[in-house]
Design goal:
6 strands, Rossmann fold, alpha/beta, 2 domains, single chain
Length: about 220
């Protein structure tokens, strides 16, 4: 494999519980909607926020309104993360893997449904700026179709100048796995912290199910 493309939320940062808490809190405060954790996991984890609002409300709002709602929800998310600073760290082995990729001159990028304020938060508060610049981060600017569409991964591969068939794509969600598969990823590695392992084992095209990034090197061969 010639390159690695990472999803971020749930894949490099074990933050699904923070997104669940934020969505439940936000939908209650803004719309008076009470959501269960199961509902959030099934409908809100994976796609970008605009796609989530479209799916949930079926239209009837402008793109500007959806963007404003998205920013409000992500404020709730960052607040939830900052309430638990002990867990403001990358998944075990990720820093070491980034160092290894850098040393071996293997290009890598992020493809995340997060918007710019969250990307800045990750670069600064999680220390991603040590390894990533904005040109190697494909994030939600309202221009690319949401996962499971492969657009984010195709754009990340384009920026790296590498065919997706020569890339390992790292994911954690079912829509993300489908996006990686549709992008034509050479290998798909899946973190087992968001979706039950038995469901991941049933997903076609998954090369490896991992819990952290120690021992990742064989996937690069």
């Amino acid at each position: 494999m010639k390159a690695v493309i990472f999803d971020f939320n749930g894949t490099l940062f074990d933050d699904t519980r923070f997104h669940i808490a934020a969505w439940k809190r936000y939908m209650r405060k803004r719309f008076g909607v009470e959501l269960t954790e199961a509902e959030v996991r099934a409908q809100f984890i994976g796609p970008n926020n605009s796609a989530i609002f479209q799916s949930w409300f079926g239209g009837g709002f402008t793109p500007e309104q959806a963007h404003a709602w998205s920013l409000e929800k992500e404020e709730e998310y960052r607040a939830a993360v900052r309430e638990d600073p002990e867990n403001l760290r990358l998944i075990d082995g990720a820093p070491e893997l980034f160092d290894l990729l850098t040393e071996q001159e293997i290009p890598f990028a992020l493809a995340t449904a997060s918007e710019r304020p969250n990307v800045d938060f990750y670069l600064n508060d999680l220390g991603l700026a040590r390894w990533f610049t904005l040109d190697r981060i494909v994030y939600d600017e309202g221009k690319l179709a949401s996962k499971p569409d492969p657009a984010f991964y195709l754009e990340a591969a384009r920026r790296l100048g590498i065919d997706p068939a020569d890339c390992v794509i790292c994911e954690d969600s079912l829509p993300g796995i489908e996006a990686a598969r549709r992008a034509g990823a050479g290998r798909i590695a899946v973190i087992d912290r968001t979706v039950p392992r038995e469901k991941l084992e049933a997903e076609p095209g998954v090369s490896a199910i991992i819990h952290d990034y120690f021992g990742f090197e064989p996937l690069l061969q």
